[in-house]
Specification:
It comes from Stackebrandtia endophytica. InterPro entries: MetI-like, MetI-like_sf. There is one protein chain. By secondary structure, the chain is an all-alpha fold. The protein has two domains: about 70 residues, no CATH class; about 230 residues, MetI-like (MetI-like fold, Orthogonal Bundle), CATH 1.10.3720.10. Helix 4 packs antiparallel against helix 12, helix 12 packs parallel to helix 13 and helix 12 packs antiparallel against helix 14. The termini are close together.
């Protein structure tokens, strides 16, 4: 197990280094082709060469390598990596610290992902397992119909409808009945509440979980049905093991490998979904920060957010690889 973990960690570090360099090179190439973004700092105002040079120096875009198309700018890459190791992500075009802005935006997004992951694991996998155990019965048809509905309805439409029905209509009733500061009054709010971040993110987090719950539920059901007919399950039953142990230890454990893989991809898709969710519910998270930085052409903020998201996805992939070895010991020996 130790060698497997070390091998996966080394692969993750090398992949992360390659991703960060590719990100740096694409950004440098964009500047070399489209021109220095420091000019956008002044908008439509006339600017002198001295003013432009001062802004380029301030935001670190004054390296001569940016004047040569195709130059990888290795010196800039080394300096950027050194700054990032000290958590110095630079300054935005508006003069704010990128590190401080990201530090304020990370907690709401992490809470959103924690809630959506809980939805995938507790509701998605549980519903898939129960549907497989009750194949052909009412609950099985209910799960299959519900997942089809979830896939058919666009998520942004589900977000808007839920915000109106739950956040406005049901929320007004809860606030008038139980009080504005009651739990239900806070949970059923149409927007983010800075004083109660977790409760006000409960509904948006559940809706963000709807991005991938249909696939996770269907794959859990299919994987369970396949393993329920496997020889090792029949052997476990023939040995007289209790049904709960056969289901949880032998069947569910072997059914989770493809499901965990899908959860990893669902997290990657949910990164895009946070932009929509945070925009509709006015959540000051990473998605909204990425959208505003892209709209303002703030490359310092954009590259910092993309780098952090890349690191996050690499960590999720590493955790999934380690879970493979836990669920199936044969993987660590291959």
């Amino acid at each position: 197990m130790g060698r497997y973990v070390i091998r996966r960690l080394l692969q993750a570090v090398l992949t992360l280094f390659f991703v960060l360099f590719l990100l740096h090179y694409l950004l440098s190439l964009a500047i070399q082709v489209n021109g220095n973004p420091a000019r956008t700092f002044f908008g439509d105002k006339p600017v002198t060469a001295e003013q432009l040079a001062a802004v380029e120096a301030k935001f670190g875009t004054d390296d001569p390598c940016l004047d040569t198309i195709g130059d990888p700018c290795l010196g800039m890459f080394g300096k950027r990596m050194g700054d990032w190791l000290t958590l110095d992500f630079g300054t935005t075009f508006h003069g704010y610290s990128v590190t401080e802005q990201i530090a304020q935006a990370v907690p709401p997004t992490l809470i959103l992902f924690a809630i959506s992951t809980a939805v995938w694991v507790l509701i998605g996998i549980t519903a898939g397992v129960l549907a497989a155990m009750k194949r052909g019965k009412f609950f099985d048809y209910l799960v299959r119909t519900g997942t089809t509905f979830t896939v058919a309805v666009p998520t942004f439409l589900l977000l808007v409808i839920t915000q109106q029905l739950v956040g406005v209509s049901l929320g007004n009733w809860a606030r008038s009945t139980f009080g504005r500061d009651s739990v239900l009054g806070i949970v059923f709010q149409p927007s983010y509440d800075h004083d109660h971040p977790f409760l006000s993110l409960l509904v948006p987090g559940i809706l963000l979980g709807a991005f991938g719950i249909a696939g996770i539920t269907r794959l859990s059901r299919t994987s369970m049905l396949e393993n329920l007919r496997a020889d090792f399950v029949r052997t476990a039953k023939a040995k007289g093991l209790r049904p709960r142990r056969v289901t949880v230890v032998h069947t569910l454990r072997n059914s989770l490998i493809p499901v965990i893989t899908l959860i990893g991809f669902a997290m990657a898709d949910a990164l895009g979904g946070t932009v929509i969710t945070e925009g509709i519910y006015s959540i000051p998270g990473m998605g909204g920060l990425a959208f505003s930085a892209t709209r303002d052409n703030d490359l310092t903020m954009v590259i910092a957010i993309v780098a952090i998201l890349s690191v996050s996805f690499m960590l999720v992939t590493l955790i999934i690889d380690l879970l493979y070895a836990v669920l199936d010991p044969r993987i660590r020996y291959e």
